[in-house]
Design a protein that fits this description.
Elements lengths: L1 E4 L4 H14 L6 E4 L1 E3 L4 H14 L6 E3 L1
Length: 65
């Protein structure tokens, strides 16, 4: 399972914003995604590593179930 930022409906955003204001904090919403590691070739991995380097971030190759 991989966790990522949730896609929220307007009413969910409103409820979160109200509680953030009341508590004077910032809340982050995460949701789980069922995944498994992608099977990639050595060449695929090199391309991913290059893109990570070019973009300055980390990438994870997965298959969404």
């Amino acid at each position: 399972m991989l966790w990522g930022f949730s896609v929220l409906k307007d009413e969910q955003m409103k409820a979160i914003a109200e509680l953030e204001e009341k508590l004077d904090i910032t809340l982050l919403a995460f949701s789980g995604i069922n995944i498994k590691n992608a099977e990639i070739t050595t060449d695929d991995l090199e391309q991913i590593k290059k893109l990570e380097s070019d973009l300055g971030l980390s990438l994870v190759a997965v298959k969404v179930e």
